[in-house]
Design goal:
Layout (H helix, E strand, L loop, with lengths): L8 H4 L16 E3 L10 H9 L4 E3 L17 E4 L7 H9 L4 E4 L9 H6 L3 E3 L6 H16 L2 H9 L17 E5 L3 H11 L5 E5 L5 H5 L3 E2 L2 H7 L2 E4 L13 H6 L5 E4 L8 H9 L5 E4 L21 H7 L4 E3 L10 H9 L5
Parallel strand pairs: 1-2, 1-3, 3-4, 4-5, 6-7, 6-9, 7-8, 9-10, 10-11, 11-12
Helix pairs in contact: 2-13, 5-7, 11-12
Length: 345
């Protein structure tokens, strides 16, 4: 049980969330936001260690309206968009829940202070493959810079014209890494190989490894002003919410490329729309979205789509959005499953 104070090192690191193995045979668990792919790794791991009769999987997310579905389970297993605020935690506690298992690395969706007051233990996945996230960021960068989706769709329709598909070299560009933890560091290592003219970083706790590879630590303002490419790798906390917003977007070059594979709330989606409409962003690629919880991980293709901001973002030719797929890898999922179930360190 822990609270992550704002503006401290604790906010950017693990807030004493226990990572030691559990005596998993001693509790029942309800798995919220169950997806088909969870049947490959997560559900078997839970059933193996808790007993099949003690595991309940439901496809809906945890909210104030669905909390009663947990019944008298002693634990709930949550995903990235499940809501575990004070109101939900209070109800869970009243139902007998003593343990929250997060099957993702971020914990911004859990009120840790309230969990501590209610004597609810919180565990998370310490990390899935940082290479998976870093490589996804670079893949999105290349896709938006070289207009791969547009080219692919043209050829699929037997249109072999290359007009309008001009890209640019990453070599010689100024690259800014916003957040230089493990994922940001690996992203920087990969992008260093492209030969940028300047590699900049911004982080409250500069990495000596990043400095050794030639990264120059600068203020957020300078990173926004100078970068041709910005890749975002900070966790979502109150202090980082909308770290890219109206004011920071105004500082950026008119052809800047922005990549976000971290958390949607780090970027003000409405401000992105306004900047794109004014041709102040050269390209945008995101695997996350600020209001993704109602849509991501679900097939909405046969529904009237009600998110005007996301619809507007998808209408721009220079925007690529994927549905938070960064951690879906054969090796990443079993590791996440076992750690999320609390059955391995």
């Amino acid at each position: 049980r822990a609270q992550a104070p704002r503006g401290t090192r604790r906010e950017t690191q693990d807030p004493t969330l226990d990572t030691h193995p559990l005596d998993a045979m001693s509790f029942s668990v309800t798995l919220f936001s169950h997806q088909k792919y969870d049947n490959n790794f997560l559900v078997p791991a839970l059933k193996e260690h808790c007993g099949e009769a003690h595991v309940k999987s439901i496809p809906v997310g945890l909210t104030n309206d669905t909390v009663e579905l947990a019944g008298n389970s002693q634990a709930v297993c949550l995903f990235v968009n499940d809501v575990a605020d004070k109101e939900v935690l209070t109800k869970l506690s009243a139902q007998g829940c003593k343990l929250i298992l997060l099957r993702n690395a971020g914990f911004n969706n859990v009120d840790l202070e309230a969990a501590g007051e209610l004597n609810i233990s919180v565990r998370r996945v310490p990390a899935y493959s940082p290479y998976a996230v870093a490589e996804m960021a670079v893949a999105l960068l290349l896709a938006v810079v070289r207009k791969i989706p547009k080219a692919y769709n043209r050829v699929r329709e037997h249109n072999f014209s290359i007009s309008g598909l001009e890209g640019f070299d990453i070599r010689g560009k100024k690259i800014g890494i916003l957040g230089t933890g493990n994922i940001g560091k690996i992203t920087a290592e990969i992008l260093k190989g492209f030969g940028p003219s300047r590699l900049m970083g911004h982080d409250a706790f500069p990495s000596e490894e990043c400095k050794a590879m030639g990264m120059e630590y600068v203020s957020l303002e300078e990173l926004c002003r100078e970068s041709d490419i910005i890749s975002i790798h900070v966790p979502l906390f109150p202090s980082t919410y909308h770290i890219i917003g109206v004011e920071t977007l105004k500082l950026m070059k008119p052809n800047v490329i922005i990549i976000n594979t971290s958390r949607g709330g780090l970027v003000d989606a409405e401000a992105l729309v306004d900047a794109l409409k004014q041709n102040r962003i050269g390209g945008l690629a995101m695997d996350v979205y600020e209001h993704e919880s109602s849509f991501f991980f679900h097939d909405c293709s046969d529904q009237v789509f009600g998110d005007d901001i996301l619809s507007r973002l998808l209408s721009f030719h220079n925007v690529i959005i994927t549905a938070h797929q960064v951690g879906i890898l054969p090796r990443a999922r079993p590791t996440s499953a076992a750690r999320g179930a609390g059955v391995c360190p």
